[in-house]
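User: My collaborator sent over this chain with a note saying "see what the structure looks like." That's all I know about it. Can you take a look?
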Amino acid sequence: MKITYRALKRAGACSEQLNEFKLRFGVSVAVTEKACVAVAQVFKWDWAANNLLTATAQKAYDDATAPAWKTYKDAEASAWKTYDDAVASASKAYDITTASAWKTYDDAVASASKAYDDVVASASKAYDDVVASASKAYNDAKAPARKAYNDAKASAFARAFNSQN
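Assistant: Without extra context I'll predict from the sequence alone. Here is the result:
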């Protein structure tokens, strides 16, 4: 039996797989085990099984691939364990190696922060002293004018109030 480009397109194959099929086989290819194994890493076989096989053929495909899937998952689990062990060891070594660098960094930041805080505190005090002195001078300078203005308002109010009938 053959698979055709047209059948793949009707079944909804993605453009990447359609282009790959056309590049390798043109418009059709005879389906043989040898031909399929030759491109085993290229095509999406589960998609093909789900979209091109009858229910009976798909069951046979699932049954035939189940042992390989289990072997794959076991190998993957073993590989993840090896990876995790290697990463854990490297992570521990990294933490040990960088700990003294972090301490040096933290000490430098603490020292710089304290120096900054001391300078800011000194500048803030000088600023606050100048503001307090300037505020006092401002209030002292306007006090006579404020008193005269309030006296004028009070007098004007009394006159206006008493002029009412």
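A starting point for your reply to your collaborator: The first helix runs from residue 5 to 11.
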